[in-house]
Amino acid sequence: MSADESILDEEGNIDLGKLQPVIFDSSNNTCRVVGEKVGQARGSGKAIQEREVK
Questions:
Q1: pTM over 0.85
Q2: φ, ψ dihedrals at 24, nearest 5°
Q3: What are phi and psi of 15, to 5 degrees?
Q4: Positive or negative torsion for Cα 47, 48, 50, 54
Q5: Model confidence over 9-40: pLDDT tens digits?
Q6: What torsion, rounded to 10 degrees, do the Cα atoms 16, 18, 22, 27 define?
Q7: Angle 13-16-17 (CA atoms, 0-180°, nearest 5)?
Q8: Reduced to 3 DSSP states, what percent helix, strand and coil does the chain have, rounded to the nearest 5?
Q9: How many CB atoms lie within 10 A of CB 17?
Q10: Are 10 and 18 a contacting pair, CB within 8 Å?
Q11: β strands within 1-54, DSSP E
Q12: How far is CA 33 from CA 7, 11, 24, in A?
């Protein structure tokens, strides 16, 4: 795999915030940009599940 240095983070990994990939949203027949981080894997979902149980 290769990537332009302008989309890499400090560790050399692809930063989706810099890349801003486009995805197709078939439910609305539109294209959307991906990139904003909204939570950490596993930890965010656990907090939501705990709120729903109460």
A1: no
A2: -95, 125
A3: -100, 110
A4: positive
A5: 999 999 988 999 999 999 999 999 987 777 77
A6: 60
A7: 115
A8: 35, 20, 50
A9: 12
A10: no
A11: 22-25, 30-33
A12: 15, 23, 9
